[in-house]
Specification:
homodimer, about 210 residues, about 0% strand, DNA-binding, disordered N terminus
DNA sequence: CGGAAATGCGAGTATGTTGTTTATATTTTC
DNA sequence: GAAAATATAAACAACATACTCGCATTTCCG
């Protein structure tokens, strides 16, 4: 076989070796997340990202072969973060309310840094061309954590598809948080309380009043 | 007083007089909604809209002075539609479950035509420059209808701010529908049922198990 | 120190996009 | 059949923006 091509990672043009460049790369990704969240995919330009990062455009292209690889880096970082939040809030057995509280607190915290990043990543930005598998994997894990929680806290009822319930729950939470983020209301404690109550009510399954 | 300036509407360059042109304008707005929903704000170009409408670009500019006025037209039409759905589902006294069912059915129907239009209009597209008042008015009415429903069906509980509850409810519903739209799952009856249950559970206020 | 490697710079380019106009053709009205 | 209304699409001008390249600066290490 021929020699391995010097391609350490398909997503990075040059591997940062010194501490300085590692900080630079971090700054670029952080700036990219900031721009993406603040200006949306339409306003996500490489020049803007470089400027925001306080870095030259040339420097950016020294580490990221193109715009999409930068997007992919942001996506990876954010998804890893969100995933860890969900995992933590459901890790060991705890009362429903406690679970809901931790989940809400965690999700809100995760979105407080870059309020609309999550939605932009899911809706506006183009899907991962290179690693569709990674994206699907995230979706699967994400849903799976919710499904686990549902299975734990919700008594199985007739004809209630686990997956659907998990999807409804997750998208409802995301909807509330996204909406609050747009209004800069993420910090409002009243909102957190209501979101917790929504979760608890749905999972403990009231509503079937008449029967 | 001086003569009224011949500016029938600031949003339309030329008023369509014949039936043919009225159909053209309608086709343009419809195409605009379609493009906006399918390609997002980033893909929303006047040329694309004209092409989709099966109309020349020149024709488009005969009736819409610029891109934003076209966007405004789409927004107006869509918001009017959504508003009427909510109004209808809460118009007269009916049991909670009935209300929820009609609301869900109506919202899903409204989103089935252009699945992601609502979100694009709210998130990606720039806000109305000309008629900020109109936009605010929509928001107010929208929330108000929800608040009314909340007041009707939810027994007042300690420290539960009506407005917050209404916002949580509306954004949760929007989140679920938006998410389902992205997956082409709007038609799934199981999803509708779960969404109804979510609404009922939250409004009838279970969840406070321990007390 | 001092040379080499790593890192950073930013003007410049090339390429495309896109909103809009305009001169012309076709259709409708009366 | 003339005038008004409507439709056409080529062309443009302005702009945006992803990306390169040659060179300057900093860090590493003997």
């Amino acid at each position: 076989m021929s020699t391995r091509i010097a391609k350490p990672h398909p997503r990075m043009r040059k591997q940062p070796r010194q501490a300085r460049s590692r900080a630079t790369v971090e700054a670029i990704i952080e700036a990219a997340a900031h721009v993406l969240s603040g200006l949306g995919w339409a306003g996500f330009t490489t020049n803007k990202v470089a400027e925001t990062a306080g870095v030259s455009i040339g420097t950016l292209y020294q580490y990221f072969p193109d715009k999409l690889s930068l997007l992919a880096a942001v996506r990876r970082r954010h998804f890893d973060h969100v995933l860890s939040v969900i995992r933590d809030s459901a890790e060991d057995q705890k009362p429903l309310r406690k679970f809901a509280q931790e989940l809400v607190r965690g999700m809100i915290a995760a979105h407080s840094i870059h309020p609309t990043l999550h939605q932009v990543l899911l809706d506006e930005a183009p899907g991962d061309r290179g690693s569709r598998a990674a994206h699907a994997s995230f979706q699967a894990q994400y849903l799976n954590h919710y499904a686990t929680a549902v299975a734990t806290y919700r008594k199985p009822r007739k004809g209630a598809d686990m997956e659907t319930v998990a999807r409804v729950l997750s998208s409802a939470i995301e909807g509330v948080i996204h909406n609050a983020a747009r209004r800069n209301m993420l910090a409002a404690p009243e909102l957190q309380k209501q979101l917790v109550e929504l979760i608890c009510a749905y999972l403990s399954g009231a509503g079937r009043i008449g029967r």
